[in-house]
Design a protein that fits this description.
Blueprint: E1 2-6, E2 11-16, E3 25-27, E4 33-38, E5 41-46, E6 52-57, E7 63-68, E8 74-79, E9 83-88, E10 93-99, E11 105-110, E12 116-121, E13 125-130, E14 133-139, E15 145-150, E16 156-161, E17 165-170, E18 177-181, E19 187-192, E20 198-203, E21 208-212, H1 216-224, H2 238-346, H3 353-474, H4 481-505, H5 510-529, H6 535-608, H7 614-628, H8 640-704
Helix pairs in contact: 2-3, 2-7, 3-6, 3-8, 4-5, 6-7
Length: 705
């Protein structure tokens, strides 16, 4: 048989006893003793020393049941020999017995109040035995009872039968019971919890059943009785405690290592992020240079095409102006000749003057109309050429706008990555600040508690001093009572003043001040009664001595608590200092990173001022690269998506340039066809004018004849 200790997370053997095949063992109600069945003998042991207190011998057969009385002074046993014995633990002697050899008793229980014993056995009877005599025999409906147990309040008796049912008997026994079917095989053991709320039964069917006990009288009795609360302490072995301390030390070391590793990882991440930022900046600068070169090439092509188009436009305009001037000169000359000839023929053809004037005016009007139509047509064509030129300029502006948008997108992507890093470090800084504030709040609470305890200690010291003064005053002779009364009155006035001061200081001391005022009034009353009552005063002096001892013990306890609080406060301060140092380091790193990024932004903004000037821009970018890139990047990798976007933009720009070139060729061809058509129209008009001249000559000749 082993006595085990129930520790925090294990059950450890404490002592082994030379008791074999022990099937019944019961602890006393106080827990300081336990009884174990060893065949036909019952051994009683001390729980704390494990000494064998008594050996109860007397049974001829195996002992089946052991039960302690309510005061742990007696033990009731029953066995297969048909005997029920009552033993005195102190004397290890039998003080009562009842023997019925025809019956094999399986269980016996002692009454909570009185000296009665209840036993069940193979005779199917529940017996109540008082002073070695059977007082009552009750039948449970012909069922074979195997177990019996009584509630701790002594109001209900429970029995278990061979059929597996449980009977609840009303106490005192009247023969009335209630049967509850539970097990399918005989009940082997039964027990009631300490608060009489549950009944636990075990049977041969392998079941453990928990039954709820509900009884109004039992509940009322349980409320009246004050039960001890469950202990909150647990047993821990020294090895487990050492393991826990070693484990906590290891965990602290691991935490320190993890903190160092996290710091190192953060540094590595900062370095990688800075390298990535440098790579992105280099990539952006390279792409900007490439885009600028492409833009310059496109702008050069555009200027070339504009110059070529302007030259062609100038040549066509000059050619048209020359042709128009020639036509005007020839027409002016012809008109002057006709006018001269007309003046010569005016006199000759006075009759036909009006008709010829009318014809001449009609011809002039038609000529002016034709000239106006030609000028309108040429102006319309000139407007179309200007619109085409405006469209080319708009397309150029669209290309410039697209280039600026791509440049803005690249800058925004870089800014977004920088902002994400900034937000990430700000979140970490906020978490560190919250932890710092929480630790600061805890330290403030501990300081307040420590200050309150110091104040309470000072108040208790003042109370001790006043009580000591009272004790010395009470030890004086009775003849000096009048002087003591005057001294006490002075003390009462002083205490009134001190009470007024304390009421102004702290709200928490109001209760104590009220108690002191009550105590003051009690002292006044006792001072008046001291002349007539001496014995109550001596008793009061003894009570004051006892109170002084209690207050001294309480003061020692306060000293111990203060020492523990000082240790915990020192530990918290050390932790707080370490965390403050870490926070300062993190802030310093964050400030350095912010300063570096701000410096880079300023320098980048200064570089962007040279965006329209390639050479200063190139020099400024080189200087920026030399200032910020200390180590060249290794293995620069370009994102595939960015490459695809760059290729797509390049193809789009090339397609737009080709479309502009084809459109320009078409416009030139249309202009050439228009110029040819105008020349043909001019030739046709010249032919018509020549025909009209011939007709005029012919008419003149006819008129002469």
């Amino acid at each position: 048989m082993r006595l085990m200790n129930l520790v925090m997370d294990d059950i450890r053997p404490f002592k082994e006893f030379a008791v074999k095949t022990c099937k019944e063992c019961r602890f006393s109600h106080g827990g300081h003793m336990f009884a174990a069945v060893n065949g036909n003998t019952v051994n009683v042991f001390a729980t704390y020393t494990c000494d064998n207190i008594a050996n109860l011998r007397g049974h001829n057969g195996k002992v089946r049941s052991v039960c302690w009385s309510a005061d742990d002074s007696r033990v009731v046993t029953c066995g297969m020999d048909g005997a029920v014995y009552e033993w005195s633990v102190r004397d290890a002697k039998r003080i009562g017995d009842y023997v019925l050899k025809s019956c094999n008793y399986t269980c016996a229980v002692s009454a909570v109040e009185g000296r009665g014993t209840y036993a069940v056995g193979s005779d199917r009877k529940l017996k109540e035995i008082v002073d070695s005599n059977v007082v009552k025999e009750l039948d449970a409906g012909g069922a074979l009872l195997t177990q019996v147990v009584m509630s701790n309040s002594g109001r209900i008796l429970f029995t278990g039968s061979e059929s597996g049912s449980v009977q609840a008997w009303k106490y005192p026994l009247t023969g009335e019971f209630t049967d509850y079917p539970c097990h399918s095989q005989p009940v082997t053991h039964m027990a009631v919890t300490s608060d009489d709320s549950s009944l636990i039964t075990v049977g041969d069917d392998g079941l453990v059943i928990l039954l709820d006990i509900r009884d109004k009288e039992l509940r009322g009795a349980k409320r009246d009785r004050e039960l001890l609360p469950f202990a909150e302490e647990i047993l821990v072995t020294r090895s487990d405690l050492e393991e826990k301390t070693n484990l906590t030390n290891d965990l602290r070391q691991k935490v320190d290592e993890l903190n160092m590793q996290n710091d190192y990882q953060l540094k590595l991440k900062d370095m990688t992020h800075s390298e990535k930022l440098k790579e992105l900046q280099d990539k952006m600068s390279q792409e900007m240079e490439a885009e600028k070169a492409r833009f310059e090439a496109l702008q050069a092509d555009k200027t070339d095409t504009e110059l070529e188009y302007e030259e062609r436009l100038k040549t066509t305009e000059e050619r048209h102006t020359q042709q128009l001037q020639q036509m005007e000169a020839t027409f002016n000359q012809k008109i002057m000749a006709e006018v001269e000839r007309y003046q010569q023929l005016v006199e000759e053809k006075e009759l036909l003057n009006e008709r010829w004037d009318e014809q001449n005016s009609l011809l002039v009007e038609s000529h002016e109309r034709l000239v106006q139509e030609l000028t309108d047509e040429y102006e319309y064509k000139l407007q179309e050429e200007q619109l085409a030129l405006q469209r080319v300029r708009d397309e150029k502006e669209d290309l410039v706008r697209q280039l600026e948008e791509t440049k803005k997108q690249v800058e925004e992507d870089a800014d977004l990555e920088i902002e994400e890093l900034k937000d990430k470090y700000e979140v970490k800084l906020a978490a560190e600040r919250e932890q710092h504030l929480r630790l600061k709040g805890e330290s403030g609470i501990l300081r307040k508690k420590f200050a309150d305890q110091l104040k309470e200690m000072e108040d208790s010291k003042d109370d001790n001093k006043t009580l000591l003064g009272k004790q010395t005053e009470l030890y004086h002779t009775i003849a000096m009572l009048e002087k003591e009364i005057t001294g006490l009155k002075k003390e009462i006035r002083e205490r009134d003043e001190t009470i007024g001061d304390k009421e102004k200081r702290i709200y928490d001391l109001k209760k104590k001040n009220q108690e002191l005022e009550k105590f003051k009034f009690v002292l006044d009353y006792k001072i008046k009664e001291l002349k007539r009552q001496m014995e109550p005063r001596e008793e009061e002096m003894q009570n004051l001595k006892r109170q002084i001892k209690e207050m001294n013990a309480e003061l020692e306890r306060y000293h111990k608590d203060n020492a523990e609080l000082e240790l915990t406060l020192a530990e918290r301060r050390l932790r707080l200092e370490g965390q403050q140092k870490e926070i300062l380091q993190q802030r310093q790193r964050l400030k350095e990173s912010h300063a570096a990024t701000e410096l880079y932004h300023k320098e980048l903004h200064a570089v962007m001022q040279y965006i329209t000037e390639p050479k200063p821009l190139k020099e400024a970018v080189k200087a920026l690269y030399q200032r910020h890139v200390t180590t060249p990047p290794h293995g620069l990798q370009v994102d595939t998506d960015m490459q695809k976007e760059y290729i797509r933009q390049r193809e789009y720009l090339e397609k737009t340039v080709d479309a502009l070139k084809t459109k320009l060729d078409k416009d030139l061809a249309l202009h050439h066809t228009d110029s040819l058509r105008i020349l043909q129209d001019n030739v046709a008009l010249i032919k018509e004018i020549n025909e009209l001249r011939r007709e005029i000559k012919a008419l003149k000749q006819v008129g002469l004849h």
